[in-house]
Amino acid sequence: MEKIENNNQEIKECFDQRDQKKLLELGLGVKEIEELKHSDMGGTSSSVFIVETKKEKIAVKRGVAVDPELNSQREYVFLRLLKKRGGEKIAPEPYYQNKKSDILVMEAVEGEPILELGDKDIADIAGKMAFVHKPEFSRPGIPFEERKEATQYERMLEQIDFLEKWFGEMEHFIKNEDFGDSDSLDKIKKAKSQIIQEAYSARDLFNKSSFSLIHYDLSPGNIIRNKSGNILFLDWRQASIGDRAMDIAKLFYKQSMNENQRKTFFDAYLSKIEDSNLPERTAIYYPLIRLASLLWRLRFLNVDVKNNPQLGKNVDVKLVKRRLVDDYEYLVALLK
What is the rounded CA–CA span in Å between residue 89 and residue 286? Predict the structure, then answer.
């Protein structure tokens, strides 16, 4: 998790009487609550503070409002859904949530991120994702919001419409960014049009109407192996009900999986779930996700950091820029 410094006064004011009462009930003392109010541990979308009570370690998570739609309520709902399903443990246990203060209290799980993925690691991750993806839903979206019936294709078109709108908002920043090309904006426009056209023409691949629970942010820091050797998925703030292929495409991107690793993943995954055209749908989503990543990084560098300078203090801005260039080079390489 990328760290930032939080505004102590803002954190102090985020606790209401209900929060403090619940924290006391969960085993935190007055001293721990005061420490939590002045916590400076966090990332670009949330801050996390670990407190050790007499019974266990507890994680208290609070959003920092970069994206108001990624709130504690969403993560809490999906953690509860996972808990109700039972079976092998796959995520932290949720204890308490307050939408107003964007506070989520949950079990603090201990483990280590998997820095280098071997075939067994990939197969284990595939099995865990298959467990998450197996239940099917007729409507996409977030459980506590109004969800309209849609096909996978219609849902993908909604994602494309969002990208088109977002592209228009970021076009000025693309033009001014130094990608090493004098015609970078024109190249990105052509790549975008080509990617979207290929998605439009893949309608037959998206004729299923069922959807799955998806995590959608399985970056290296969000996948750990605990002391028992089990893989756990953390940080469900971007979870939703959508196409499992989109979740897998995001995993491939976040984990920088090569072709051999992707084959290992599909071999393990498809032994647990029947989905005949999953690899083809994943291949359609992957460039769309790379385009979304480029736009997000441009927004982060040119809008989010500008509006909230604290975000840029402990974030590796050079790394964000380097990955922005990586996204650009990938997209341009697609041009035929």
Answer: 29
Task: Render pLDDT for 282-301 as a digit per residue (tens, 0 to 9).
Answer: 999 999 999 999 999 999 99
Contact criterion met (CB below 8 Å) for 79 and 94: yes
Count of helix runs (H) and strand runs (E) in the chain = 12, 9
What's the fold here for domain 112-333? Answer: Aminoglycoside 3'-phosphotransferase; Chain: A, domain 2 (3.90.1200)
Question: CA 143 from chain center: how many Å?
Answer: 17
User: What is the C-alpha separation between 153 and 276, in angstroms, rounded?
Assistant: 16
Cα 225 to Cα 93, 123, 232, 237, distances in angstroms: 16, 13, 6, 20
Q: Is residue 231 helix, strand or coil? A: strand
User: Would you kindly state where each structural domain of the chain is located, as residue ranges?
Assistant: 8-109, 112-333
Least Cα distance to 39 among 58, 55, 26 occurs for: 58
Task: Look up tokens 């736009």; give the residue.
Answer: 295
Q: How far is CA 320 from CA 97, 107, 150, 213, 327, in A?
A: 31, 30, 35, 29, 11
In DSSP terms, 98 is beta-bridged to 103
Radius of gyration of the chain (CA): 21
133 in Cβ contact with 125 (< 8 Å): no
Q: What is the pTM of this model?
A: 0.89
Same fold, 8-109 and 112-333: no
Average pLDDT of 70-94?
91
Question: φ, ψ for residue 90 (rounded to 5)?
Answer: -130, -10
Q: Which residue has the tokens 């995993």?
A: 251
- So what CATH class is 8-109? alpha beta
Interatomic CA distance for residues 121 and 135, integer angstroms: 23
Reduced to 3 states, what is the DSSP secondary structure of residue 42?
strand
